[in-house]
Automatic annotation (TrEMBL):
<protein>
    <recommendedName>
        <fullName>PAS domain-containing protein</fullName>
    </recommendedName>
</protein>
């Protein structure tokens, strides 16, 4: 589990954030370890709604065709980040909130500093 300091840091962020576990064995379906209060306030989901990457993708990308588009774009962004030596991935996507509304977010993902087994994912709303 994430350290207490990481939990406190994530909870204090003024934007939605989550932390997932990243290991070689969980590359395909990372378990979600925590979401901050701002995440629940804006997107509506709590940790139990999205216990892993698979659940997340099913809920926020309910249209299978759009889900495939985002998945492919994410893979391309991962490849590009690796080639450029970047530690983060950035992608602008439409997310379906728990209330069924759709909003556009910039999603930023990177390893947690000093904790390589954890991924931090931050969400910046782009919808006016």
């Amino acid at each position: 589990m994430p350290t207490d300091a990481l939990r406190e840091f994530i909870q204090c962020l003024p934007l939605p954030a989550l932390v997932a576990k990243h290991t070689k064995h969980s590359r395909v379906n990372h378990p979600t370890l925590l979401v901050n209060q701002q995440f629940s306030n804006e997107l509506g989901y709590v940790h139990s709604d999205i216990p892993d990457k698979h659940s997340w993708w099913q809920k926020v990308y309910p249209d299978p065709l759009y889900q495939q588009v985002v998945q492919r774009q994410w893979e391309l962004e991962e490849e590009l980040a690796e080639r450029e030596g970047r530690q983060f991935i950035r992608l602008d996507v439409n997310l379906t909130l728990k209330n069924g509304r759709e909003k556009r977010y910039r999603v930023l993902s990177s390893p947690c500093p000093g904790l390589p087994d954890y991924i931090q994912v931050l969400f910046i709303e782009l919808t006016p």
